[in-house]
Amino acid sequence: MKKLIEIKNMYFKYDKEYVIENLDLDIYSGDYLGIIGSNGSGKSTLIKLMLGILKPSKGEILLYGKNPAIGKFTSNIGYVSQVGLSTGIDFPATVREIVMMNLYREIGLFKFSKVKHKEMVKKALQTVDMLDYEKSKFSDLSGGQQQRVMIAKAIVNNPELLILDEPTTGIDHKSVESLYSLLDNLHKNKNISIVMISHDIKKIKSHATKILELDDFSEEVIGC
Length: 224
Ligand SMILES: Nc1ncnc2c1ncn2[C@@H]1O[C@H](COP(=O)(O)OP(=O)(O)OP(=O)(O)O)[C@@H](O)[C@H]1O
Hints:
A 6-stranded mixed β-sheet has the order 5-6-7-3-8-9, with helices on both faces. It has a 3-stranded antiparallel β-sheet with strand order 2-1-4, covered by helices on one side. It is of the alpha/beta class. Helix 5 crosses helix 6. The longest helix has 17 residues. The chain is built from 8 helices and 9 strands. Adenosine-5'-triphosphate binds next to helix 1. InterPro entries: AAA+_ATPase (IPR003593), ABC_transporter-like_ATP-bd (IPR003439), ABC_transporter-like_CS (IPR017871), Metal_Ion_Import_ABC (IPR050153), P-loop_NTPase (IPR027417).
């Protein structure tokens, strides 16, 4: 099995105290890892380390066997933030434009998208069942619909790994259920590995294949 992320003896602190201490963790292709833990236990920090936004204070984190270049986002990894953060989009963009944003590296800024790119956007929107909303204004959608669009944006590049930071916060019960089924579908049928923070321990344990508990500095991986 291919190793996507390898964390070795990693420590991280913002100021004086360590937020993450002596963490060892391997994430393989095919994993669906749920990250749980109380408020402030370091879940979002760990994701920022995985994305290369933060650098370990000690120890190592390797993405595809390499040190992530700080601030250089790899297109092999898709990222979805909390609903509140994704709705920070305050210009009148359409659903298609939002998803297209993750193709600009490929298209080139200020150049026109090609048929191929429009097809990639359509395919991603179809996967998340939002193709009918392609021309709708993003800001007119419900929280659950917006989150599906953000997932389409994250998968439009066909990443191997999708990282989600509590994507269900603030969305209604029915949308949460359908978001979990969508993630199951991406995991099982599209071979996308998943790392997801969740406060709903029962639910994440019933979907994930591994759980990492980040509490009281005691990190533990439990096979589900
Ligand atoms: N930029 C920062 N500078 C200093 N301290 C920070 C910063 N970001 C987070 N922290 C602190 O690091 C600790 C871990 O924060 P983090 O956001 O990773 O926790 P979390 O488990 O994701 O919490 P929550 O469940 O509330 O989102 C907290 O004590 C937090 O106050």
